[in-house]
Amino acid sequence: MSNPEIKGVISSKAKLRMTLILIAIVGVYIYTSWATRSTPGDLIRGWSGFQRITTDLFPPNLAYAPQVWDKLAETIHMAIIATTLAAIISIPIFLLSAANLFPSPWIHQPVRFIMNVLRTIPDILLAIIFVGIFGVGVFPGIIALFIFSLGLLAKLMYETIEAIDMNPLDAIRASGGNTLQVIWYAVLPQVLPQFVSFSLYVFEVNVRASTVLGFVGAGGIGLLLQQQISFFNYPRVMTIIIIIFVAVIIIDYISNKIRERIV
Question: How far apart are CA 66 and CA 126, in angstroms?
Fold first, then answer.
């Protein structure tokens, strides 16, 4: 007695399609590796350099830590100022960007376009430009982080507004309420927790970003890190990395706790 044929859940046509997609993806990776001349062999060839740098980084020079606190505080201050200003100024921008509040494309499309332009410029490029304008220091870093945060917050928030429950908005409009009343009584109560949550997230991103901006002279702990790397003082570099790592973990923990209570 022959066993009955067991057919798979996925049809042969679907299997063929998935196989072709997999082949296409592998082909793209192979072409990309060939075009950029980057292969897994580069990792093997660079292993000795990795070992050398790792050996140089340890043990960290913890006696250098007291000189890092001021720059760490400066980095956090940069992130606080940039995030706070961006959060306040983004409010009218993301409201005007929401298509369900302002259906006319002549209103929300130009605002979105400007925000898209700002968002496509990397924060480090903004920092380089503003360092060229204002000189080395904290202020160019704050301006770069502010513009970066503004574009990010505006996008996150107008997408949130476009996903809210429209019934309260329609009810206020039907009873004769104007746009400001709709925003105040129907929109803001629904999106305020997300707004606080996104602002905290942007603050975390800004703390990390400001570390990198210091490499181009935009102040903060990154400036200290760049100086020590240029002097090949790797034990001090490791000390700075550990302090940044601990600070980011603490900020991330506090932000998550605040978000859990709000959202």
Answer: 30
Q: What is the pLDDT of residue 8?
A: 59
Mean pLDDT in residue range 202-226: 83
Nearest CA to 136 out of 224, 73, 239 is that of 224
Residue 38 φ/ψ, nearest 5 degrees: -120, 120
What is the token pair recorded at 28?
């793209």
**Which tokens belong to 102?**
């302002």
Distance CA 81, CA 144 (A): 11
Structure tokens at 194: 């997300």
Q: Is the peptide bond before 59 cis (omega within 30 degrees of 0)?
A: yes
pTM for this one? 0.78
Answer yes or no: are the C-beta atoms of 214 and 227 closer than 8 Å.
no
**11 in helix, strand or coil?**
coil
d(CA 152, CA 157): 9
Confidence of residue 2 (pLDDT cuts 50, 70, 90): low
Tokens of 45: 């060839």
> Which amino acid does the sequence have at 196?
V
User: How far is residue 58 CA from its own chain's centroid?
Assistant: 30
Report residue 60: phi and psi, to 5°. Answer: -65, 150
Q: Count of CB atoms within 10 A of residue 83's CB?
A: 23
What is the pLDDT, as a whole number, of residue 100? 86
Nearest-CA neighbor of 139 among 73, 250, 220, 196?
220
CA distances from 244 to 116, 158, 173 (A): 30, 32, 50
